[in-house]
Amino acid sequence: MIRKYPVPGPKARAIVERDRKVVSPSYPRDCPFVMSHGQGSEVWDVDGYRYIDCAAGIAVCSTGHAHPDVVRAIQQQAQQFIHISSDFYHDKMVQMAEKLDEIAPFEERAVCFFTNSGTEAVEAALKLARFHTGRPYLIGFYGGFHGRTYGAISMTASKPAHHRGFGPLLNGVIHAPYADPYRPVLGVNPAAGDFGDACVDYLEDVVLRSDVPADEVAAILVEPILGEGGYVVPAPHFLPRLRELCDRHGILLIADEVQSGVGRTGTWWAVQHSKIEPDIVCSAKGIASGVPFGAMVARQSVVTWEPGSHGNTYGGNPLACAAGLETLRLVESGYMQNARDVGEHMLQALQAMALRHPSVGDVRGLGLMIGVDFVTDKASKAPAHDIMEAVVRGAYERGLLLLGCGRSVIRFAPPLNIPITLANEALAIFEDALTEVEAKLVVATMK
Question: Do 218 and 129 form a contact (C-beta atoms < 8 A)?
Answer without folding.
Answer: yes
